[in-house]
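User: I'm curious whether this sequence folds into something compact or stays loose and floppy. Could you predict its structure so I can see for myself?
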Amino acid sequence: MANELNLNDQELVRREKMNELRARGIDPFGHAFKRTTDSQAIKTKYADKTKEELQEMNETAIVAGRIMSRRVKGKAGFMHIQDKYGLLQIYVRFDNVTEEEYEVFKKGDLGDIVGIEGTVIRTDTGELSVKATKYTHLSKALRPLPEKFHGLQDKEEARRRRYLDLIMNEDAKRVAFLRPKIIRSFQKFFDGRGFTEVETPVLQPILGGANARPFTTHHNALDMDFYLRIATELPLKRLIVGGMEAVYEIGRLFRNEGMDATHNPEFTTVEAYLAYSDMRGMMDLIEDLFRFLTKEVLNTNQVTYQGNLLDFEKPFTRIHMVDAIKDQTGIDFFKVETLDEALKLAKDHEIIVPKHQMAYGHIINLFFEKYVEETLIQPTFVFGHPIEISPLAKKSPDPRFTERFELFINKKEYANAFSELNDPIDQRERFENQLKEKALGNDEANEMDVDYVEALEYGLAPTGGLGIGIDRTVMMLTGCDSIRDVLLFPHMRKNE
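Assistant: Here's the prediction. I'll summarize afterward.
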């Protein structure tokens, strides 16, 4: 069997030790073990105690963890075990545990999981430790851990085997525990503003709520094709029609598109909708939210990320998309009145316009992406998106534009928000225009959602809505450069 598994020498030795444990009557893969404390609690509770004070206190502790280092010399040895909070030193002496327990300790391997009962001490070198009076083997590691300084330097390998990354890499563990804290902070903010957290379907029969290419699947019992949702927008706005007034959802979205440092096909967003608000109300809400998040998570409103000091305390810049383009290029698209004129400007600036984007608004957006995005470092609201790229946003007084904005931080979009389109006649026309784009080859165009238009016909109050990318926000707050480092299990290419 061992040869069939193609085991190396270390793995063969570990299997022999597994069999030795069985011969001693010890289950190599153990049983439940009741702990009374952990590494963090011990370090916190006894941080100010001297060696002599601890001897006098004679405090007992039962801890458990994975062996990360060990050194044995004769009748005594030290090891460090790791639990979810970090490392704790264990001191094991031959005359303090049974003979069998000491033999098991001596033959233990890095990676084994053990339970320790003993007294809290401070060693001669000053390190808080537990002096073992009982040693319990809990689980045998049949593979050796990676060598600490070289084994998981390959980031791709670390992402594929996140369990090893979490064992060996303190920063990976820091991010893993900080991400849920950040999500709790989102919830705390919206709950505190009177929003209700809800859940909407992941499987959706109609493509809508965003411009994106979907994943498709088939439901056998209903004999229907479904999309994995690309947005939560349309179900949430139905809830506003129903009178819930303030709702939000933190959930996974799925987009069958490219992958890079800020894009994964499966990602997490928060969308929120507030009746009787609008685009500017959403600006105020998002500005307050990011101040809350940075203070709650990092205890500061100044965040250094990718070499830039981002200031969330100052009022966020607010600028119309056309004015932002004019600042960078000198071109004023407010004065561009014909499509031919816009197409000529695109050609003069070497901007390729796809056939399904041969429209005034699409060309403005292409200019923005080429000339403006890279300049937006400090938190900036860019508003006034063209109607062609905003099928769910209310029109501005200038009907070429909408009451929509995006929040840019450090050159990337973090939020998308608008005054929601609540005119059912206008909404139907927008959906029909999206169908025309789909016919011209735009795989990301929305489909006609007849039920949603019908919901609007019952009356949607003036409403503001927003969507925020949680993964990107976590990247910024944890200092990670790749979305794959804030996802515990990112999607990866096959390992050939």
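Summary: The longest strand covers residues 60-73. The mean pLDDT is 94.
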